[in-house]
Amino acid sequence: MQGEAAVGELRQYGVDQPVFLCHFTPGPAWEAVREQFEAWSALREPDPDGSRTAKVIRSIMDLGLRLVPTDDSPSMALFTECILRIDGHTARLRY
Predict the structure, then answer these.
(1) pTM above the 0.70 mark?
(2) Which of 23, 34, 48, 79 has the fewest CB atoms within 10 Å of its CB?
(3) Domains of the chain by residue range
(4) What band does 59 get if pLDDT is binned at 50, 70 and 90?
């Protein structure tokens, strides 16, 4: 979620400890954040000092995204309380 807008939906299909493997379905607010997640997904080459990675992650953190569970569990801020990588229609989530 970004505020009250749904960015997308995650459906867990497996676990690769410590990561939850999910299917990702874009929501109405996906287009507003898609570019930042695609930039992070595109970081495949070595980043020795971590500066490129930090810049991309900071741009996602600045979006104020939250993972909101469907049960009564508390929501979590992305990259503060959990890490989420979205690559097309798959996602990897780590608490």
Answers:
(1) yes
(2) 48
(3) 8-94
(4) very high
